[in-house]
Amino acid sequence: MSAPTLVILAAGMASRYGSQKQTEGFGPNGETIMDYSIFDAIRAGFGKVVFIIREDFSEVFKAIFEPKLKGKIATEYVYQALNKFTEGKQVNPARTKPWGTAHAVLCTKGVVNVPFAVINADDYYGKEAFEQAFLFLTKECNNKTYSILGYELANTLSENGTVSRGVCSIDTNNVLTQIDERTKIYRKDGQIVFEEEGVETSLNEDTRVSMNFMCFAPNFIDLCENEFSDFLDKQGQELKSEFYIPYVTGLFSTKGMGDVKVIPTDAKWFGVTYKEDAPGVKQSISELVNAKVYPQKLW
After folding, report:
1. Helix, strand, coil % (nearest 5) of the chain?
2. What is the pLDDT of residue 277?
3. What is the torsion angle, in degrees rounded to the nearest 10, for the CA atoms of residue 184, residue 102, residue 13 and residue 71?
4. Which domain CATH number covers 272?
5. The predicted structure's pLDDT at residue 224
6. Contact 208, 81 (CB under 8 A)
7. Alpha-carbon span 156 to 202, nearest angstrom
8. Which pLDDT score is estimated for 148?
9. pLDDT for 269 beyond 90
10. For an engineered disulfide with 4, which of 17, 135, 137, 156 has Cβ 3.0 to 4.6 Å away?
């Protein structure tokens, strides 16, 4: 059996952050958050990393990552572009941004053919999460069984603005019953709330949420293709509509195609949604290095 693949979502425009945060150095020797994720994936047993990036950024990106990863893990690159998989569909000609995270995964069609995990480039997930993902992908994952690493909502907030999270509803066996993408979550007056159409709704501190660390069989890519066609029929004329991974994952569950296990983790997430998050990320990584979770020089 082939070792699982790690797919990294790195094509984002970084509009809120204001620069290419995917390649910004946060570690003691300029390591990116991605470097720590890849390091964790390698020691967990993953055999390949597939980067989803913008083609216009590819030369810079490859120059950063190829030298340090050569001989350590196989690499491949996929380019996400607005016009991919839109043939024969009516889309708004004024739209400039790609279609979101599930569209990014769809762009790996023909490249990813083994069980795989998907992560964000700018999120730190922790060593244990990659070990859990590897175990699931090699022991349990199949065409009817996927998984989500479920983080406690309170451990995933930014002090510097709102965040988007896939809010999970689960049964007594930790199987997903519903997932809702909430795009504006924040803390207010000591409570966590999400805002939708001007209405605020509270959420429990320990609500399990997706941080886009998910594990799939390759048939998920085909599901993305099928659902993207329907998505374009309904929302292809919108300038900012997003085709999200949690949306497609939720359909897999609610349509009875299979089960999505929510693997609970109490790890504290950190990431760089906003520029103001950067000092905290550097401090967190410094603490992990000092605790010898990671070597001083990663590569």
Report:
1. 30, 30, 40
2. 87
3. 130
4. 3.90.550.10
5. 97
6. no
7. 16
8. 96
9. no
10. 137
Which phi and psi angles does 177 have, rounded to 5°? -110, -25
Measured in whole angstroms, the distance separating CA 24 from the mean position of its chain's CA atoms is 18
Range of the domain at 13: 5-290
Residues 95-107, mean pLDDT to the nearest whole number: 93
Q: What is the pLDDT of residue 12?
A: 67
Pairing state of beta strands 191-196 and 199-203? Answer: antiparallel
Q: What is the pLDDT of residues 30-85, one digit of tens each?
A: 999 999 999 999 999 999 999 999 898 889 889 989 999 999 999 999 999 999 99
In a domain, 283, yes or no: yes
> Is 224 within a domain?
yes
Domain count, the chain: 1
**In the block, which residue shows the tokens 């762009």?**
107
- Torsion angle in degrees (nearest 10) through CA of 101, 152, 186, 176: 50
Report the sign of the C-alpha dihedral through residues 195, 150, 171, 7, in that order. Answer: positive
Residues in the chain: 299
Cα distance between residue 177 and residue 155, in whole Å: 22
pLDDT per residue over 207-242, tens digit each?
999 998 999 999 999 999 999 999 999 998 998 899
Q: In 197-226, which positions are buried (b, 16+ CB within 10 angstroms) versus exposed (e)?
A: eeeeeebeeebbbbbbbbbbbbebbebbbe
Residue 119 lies in a domain: yes
Q: Do the Cβ atoms of 73 and 46 come closer than 8 Å? A: yes
Rounded CA gap, 149 and 152, in Å?
10
Whole-angstrom CA distances from 249 to 148, 223, 275 are 9, 9, 30
